[in-house]
Automatic annotation (TrEMBL):
<dbReference type="GO" id="GO:0140359">
    <property type="term" value="F:ABC-type transporter activity"/>
</dbReference>
<dbReference type="GO" id="GO:0008643">
    <property type="term" value="P:carbohydrate transport"/>
</dbReference>
<dbReference type="GO" id="GO:0016887">
    <property type="term" value="F:ATP hydrolysis activity"/>
</dbReference>
<comment type="similarity">
    <text>Belongs to the ABC transporter superfamily.</text>
</comment>
<keyword id="KW-0813">Transport</keyword>
<dbReference type="GO" id="GO:0005524">
    <property type="term" value="F:ATP binding"/>
</dbReference>
<keyword id="KW-0067">ATP-binding</keyword>
<protein>
    <submittedName>
        <fullName>ABC transporter ATP-binding protein</fullName>
    </submittedName>
</protein>
<dbReference type="GO" id="GO:0055052">
    <property type="term" value="C:ATP-binding cassette (ABC) transporter complex, substrate-binding subunit-containing"/>
</dbReference>
<feature type="domain" description="ABC transporter">
    <location>
        <begin position="4"/>
        <end position="234"/>
    </location>
</feature>
<keyword id="KW-0547">Nucleotide-binding</keyword>
């Protein structure tokens, strides 16, 4: 199992520096949650780990590999987004197996991995449906299933539940937590939802304007926030 290590990560868009030298170690198997206000750099950081944004300077390691300049497909990660962009003309099973198919994996292996992901996410009865015939929660489950099928060492989630209604969010939260227990992969999860952060995280990273304000276990940050900003996000109101 692979952890993720960030060393002095800087990101500039043109003249504007938006990530100012972030150091972070996410341990193998850890569920790490990034929280912070809109625009603080959560998505940018995640996209650099995924290889979807160029890292201006610094180093990203996944397991033993320096992946700072590696292609996304070489990093051993899978990312789940807020909008789940399923292929409308493909069935659930085809959507989930598409990545492996593109990489030339044999049909029998794809079927077996799709089946396993469908079991984990209770998608078996829906495998022959098209996305249009699914609810929002079911579609997001397929997007997560697509990530599982690829068998990554590291899962990256960018606010995956923010398009779902409150009831479904609670259900999906439990489901992702169960997924983490079952497959034991390293997960980095971006949210602006305090409850999600508190209930799901082994470790919370509080970001503010492109730097890390504080890192800690949920109860440590709750009981002992370093400052008012952290307290405002996850601290106790006292
Ligand atoms: P968050 O996900 O925490 O809301 P983002 O990572 O999306 O924040 O954005 C961090 C900062 O980087 C913001 O100031 C945003 O405007 C800027 N930014 C993000 N993407 C781009 C881009 N492609 N070009 C220029 N600026 C960007
Ligand atoms: Mg974002």
């Amino acid at each position: 199992m692979s952890g993720v290590a960030l060393h002095k990560i800087v990101k500039r868009f043109g003249e504007a520096e938006v990530i100012h030298g972030v150091d972070l170690a996410v341990e193998p198997g850890e569920f790490c949650v990034f929280v912070g206000p809109s625009g603080c750099g959560k998505s940018t950081l995640l996209r650099m780990i995924a290889g979807l944004e160029v890292t201006t300077s610094g180093q990203i390691r996944i397991g033993d590999n320096d992946v700072t300049s590696a292609e996304p497909a070489e990093r051993g990660i899978a990312m789940v987004f807020q909008t789940y962009a399923l292929y409308p003309h493909m069935t659930v099973a085809e959507n989930m197996g598409f990545g492996l198919k593109m990489n030339g994996h044999p049909k029998a292996e794809i079927t077996q991995k799709v089946q396993r992901a469908a079991e984990i996410l209770k998608l078996e009865p829906l495998l022959d449906r098209k996305p249009a015939a699914l609810s929002g929660g079911q579609r997001q489950r397929v997007a997560i299933g697509r990530a599982i099928t690829r068998g990554p060492e590291v899962f990256l989630f960018d606010e995956p539940l923010s398009n779902l209604d409150a009831e479904l969010r609670v259900e999906m939260r439990a489901e992702i937590a169960r997924l983490h227990r079952e497959i034991g992969a390293t997960m980095i999860y971006v949210t602006h939802d305090q409850v999600e952060a508190m209930t799901m995280a082994d470790k919370i990273v509080v970001l503010r304007s492109g730097h890390i304000e504080q890192v800690g276990a949920p109860m440590d940050l709750y009981d002992d926030p370093d400052n008012r900003f952290v307290a405002g996000f996850i601290g106790s109101p006292a």
